[in-house]
Amino acid sequence: MKPTSDGRASTSLRQLLLQRSEWFEGRVLDAAPRFGYHFVTPAMHRLFAHMSRKPVSISVLARRLAVSRQAVHQTVGEARRRGIVELIDDPADARVRKVRFTENGMSMVRSAAQAVRRIEGELERRLGSRDLAALRRILSKDW
Question: The pTM is what?
Answer without folding.
Answer: 0.82
